[in-house]
Specification:
By secondary structure, the protein is an alpha/beta fold. It folds into 3 domains: 2-93, OB fold (Dihydrolipoamide Acetyltransferase, E2P), CATH 2.40.50; 129-172, Dihydrolipoamide Transferase; 175-428, 3-Layer(aba) Sandwich (Rossmann fold), CATH 3.40.50. Helices cover 30% and strands 20% of the residues. The chain has 13 helices and 18 strands. It has helices at 110-121, 132-141, 159-172, 238-249, 263-271, 296-304, 308-315, 327-336, 342-353, 364-369, 387-393, 410-413, 415-428; strands at residues 2-6, 16-22, 29-30, 35-40, 45-49, 54-58, 66-68, 72-77, 88-92, 182-186, 193-196, 219-222, 256-261, 279-285, 354-355, 358-359, 374-379, 399-403. It has a 7-stranded mixed sheet with strand order 10-12-11-13-14-17-18, sandwiched between helices. Strand 15 and strand 16 form a beta hairpin. The chain is globular. Residues 92-127 and 170-177 have low confidence and may be disordered. Its cofactor is (R)-lipoate.
């Protein structure tokens, strides 16, 4: 029997969601718990996990499409099975299992309804069709929707079209100085929390903790040069990375709270010295730049791995307890490498900030001078950085938390504690 993974209901009053990311393709084998997609509403982003297992036999949507909630996002079946004539059951990928009839699993994709609506309206009303997410991100970046070619249903501008426009703008700037991919993960009021990922990751790594960060504040994240949607933005030094991030954040808000991991933590600290950003607080997870040493073998092994088995072997070094490294994280990292030039771009970033096992930058002076609330969180079992060097380099004005039985990913191995410390740091800023 084919299983339908449904588009989750992402809000009581919302009837549609944008398919932001697809982590599987037709013919892929999916296991229970695998991350298969990310959908986005006007208010938040949601990861869609498989609550069944099988082979992907049908995918009515592509990235950027606007989907009806509770419509099939994809179908899982047996190898060689087709959807036509197959009995279908519905699996809702959210905690609340809503009753769905067999008739409901055959809902036509939202694209048909939107196209019909667009045809009925005609093109004389002067209104450019766009998704709520696309409108919000275009407004945040100062982009005119009329200048963006839409690839969605009925020619609508969707999130990936805005992202492409941002990328085109970035590549038009000088190398290392263009705009980066910045995305709103949660709407809110007040000074936003800006999350900056570490080397080899991307902004999607923060999605799991969005809902637990201080309620009411917006949460945003960006892709560093050479990573994610910013893969084509180059940087030849740590200073250029910082400059690129700073330029991309300068007009985001009057005040910001920075949360960074590893390389992203070093960038966050360095941003406080620019003078044109109002940084209210810093939370630094396993920060690079405090000490000279880095595991150069890990950097090379991580970049060279081409199979899931090899990549998992190196990524286990990021955690003290291998069981804390979810297989879906490894598969998502490997799938991201399908982006042309991504690994080569990350090699260039690595060459800019590391020389074998030596870090080529330091954030010690920046931390010494920062007067706002600052929290540094490290794992005592971190083998990527030298924790003795890090601990000795944290200035007296920063709060240092050394977590037992935790490696380089405290946000994974001690998630609740880390989220509590982030909340405390943000609130201390007033």
């Amino acid at each position: 029997m084919a299983e339908a993974i449904l588009v989750p209901q992402v809000g009581q009053d919302l009837t549609e969601a944008t398919v932001v990311e697809l982590h599987v393709k037709l013919g892929d084998t999916v296991k229970k718990g695998d991350l298969v997609a990310v959908v986005e509403s006007e208010k938040a982003s949601f990861e869609v996990e498989a609550f069944a297992e099988g082979v992907v036999i049908n995918m009515p949507y592509k990235e950027g499409d606007v989907a009806e909630v509770l419509a099939p996002l994809m179908h899982l079946g047996q190898p060689g099975e087709s959807l036509e004539g197959a009995a279908v059951s519905a699996t809702q990928s959210s905690e609340a299992q809503a009753p769905v009839s067999a008739e409901q699993t055959t809902i036509a994709p939202a694209a048909s309804a939107i196209t019909a609506q667009a045809e009925a309206q005609g093109s004389t009303d002067g209104w450019r069709r766009s998704s709520p997410v696309a409108r919000r991100e275009a407004a945040a970046r100062g982009l005119d929707l009329a200048s963006i070619k839409g690839s969605g249903p009925g020619g609508a501008v969707v999130q990936k079209d805005v992202a492409a426009a941002i990328m085109a703008s970035a590549t038009a700037h000088r190398q290392g100085g263009g705009a980066l991919a910045v995305r709103t993960l949660r709407e809110g009021q007040g000074s936003p929390i800006i999350c900056i990922h570490g080397f080899g990751a991307d902004l999607s790594s923060w999605r799991g903790m969005v809902g637990t960060l201080p309620v009411g504040l917006p949460v945003m994240a960006l892709d560093l040069p050479g990573h994610g949607a910013s893969a084509h933005v180059g940087a030849s030094s740590f200073a250029e990375i910082v400059a690129c991030v700073g330029e991309s954040l300068r007009d985001v808000a009057a005040g910001i709270h920075l949360v960074g991991h590893s390389l992203g933590a070093a960038v966050a600290a360095a941003l406080t010295e620019r003078g044109d950003l109002d940084v209210r607080s810093l939370t630094l997870l396993s920060p690079a730049g405090l000490g000279a040493k880095v595991d150069g073998d890990f950097i090379e092994g991580f970049l060279s791995a081409q199979s899931e088995t090899a990549l998992a072997t190196w990524m286990r070094r990021l955690v003290h307890d291998p069981e804390k490294l979810a297989p879906v994280l490894v598969r998502a990292t490997l799938a991201a490498r399908d982006t042309p030039g991504l690994v080569a771009a990350q090699r260039r970033v690595a060459a800019a900030v590391f020389e074998r096992s030596t870090q080529l930058f330091s954030l010690g002076r920046a931390l010494d001078r920062f007067l706002g609330p600052c929290t540094v969180i490290v794992g005592r079992k971190d083998v990527i950085l030298c924790m003795d060097e890090v601990a000795e380099s944290v200035p007296a004005n920063a709060a240092l938390h050394r977590l037992p039985a935790v490696g380089h990913l405290p946000q994974v191995e001690a998630a609740e504690l880390v989220q509590s410390l982030i909340t405390r740091t943000v609130r201390a800023a007033g």
